[in-house]
Amino acid sequence: xxxxxxxxxxxxxxxxxxxxxxxxxxxxxxxxxxxxxxxxxxxxxxxxxxxxxxxxxxxxxxxxxxxxxxxxxxxxxxxxxxxxxxxxxxxxxxxxxxxxxxxxxxxxxxxxxxxxxxxxxxxxxxxxxxxxxxxxxxxxxxxxxxxxxxxxxxxx
Length: 156
What we know:
Helices cover 62% and strands 11% of the residues. It has 8 helices and 3 strands, in the order H-H-E-H-H-E-E-H-H-H-H.
């Protein structure tokens, strides 16, 4: 029978939680500034970033962003009017539309991604072992396991 875990309230856990909150806040602030520098809202920049990875059905974008599909429709409309995104039939199901970046959209997403320096510069100061350990710990916190790399960072 599973037992409920008692939440940790020790000073170290509280400090780590506060630091995570500070990192998230600073990341969002920089992301919003970078988006604004490209005349995008944060939501538009996030959608464009997702689409730069692969064309995606709008319903799936809504799931990834945890928002209503109608919100995604509005975001896609605005990105499309700027020539950054286009709608296409899904090759797997022509009744479904996917949103895909245009060449200009891919380039804008790349410039946006490259302008985010908040985490990249401090991470560059960590060793490969430290970055691997941090990645594995973050994945573990997110419940993604370690992908079979148990101990790699600690033993390297």
